[in-house]
Amino acid sequence: TLxxxxxxxxxxxxxxxxxxxxxxxxxxxxxxxxxxxxxxGDQFRGxxxxxxxxxxxxxxxxxxxxxxxxxxxxxKLVKGFLPEQKAWAPRTVNRTLEMIGGLLxxxxxxxxxxxxxxxxxxxxxxxxxxxxxxxxxxxxVKIWENADSYWLPFFKFLYYTGMRKGEAINLIWVxxxxx
Length: 179
Hints:
By secondary structure, this protein is mainly alpha-helical. It is built from eight helices and no strands. The model has no long low-confidence stretch (mean pLDDT 87).
């Protein structure tokens, strides 16, 4: 009866988490910068290490991933589960959960999974940041007066442009509009 009356043989693809991550990142590589892909890889590595350590059979076969694996991973990342790994910030863990959800959606699209086991995983509550405090004019005068003359132009550049330190350090001329 196979192939008749809508009955088809179920073909299962046994793929490991690391193979899925590689395939997912390779498909996204033309749409994302190398720096973004590295960050994605680093965040997926937390999920991979968690599964490899606590659920090695699941790590080797993504069809075994269940919702509780994703929830337990979330809880372990917040605490830091490896000696060389410190606890992750709640925002980072939540971003990782979203990425895991995207990874498992990709597995569904590729027919590796029937449904996404990460769907509905609760995020960690993160308190909202308040309005940032700014320096008063008097405080700025003190900073300008006491800053090393070598760094003063850089500090003023950050202040007047609103750039973060990393943005200013990585700024290149082709991205600077001088009009």
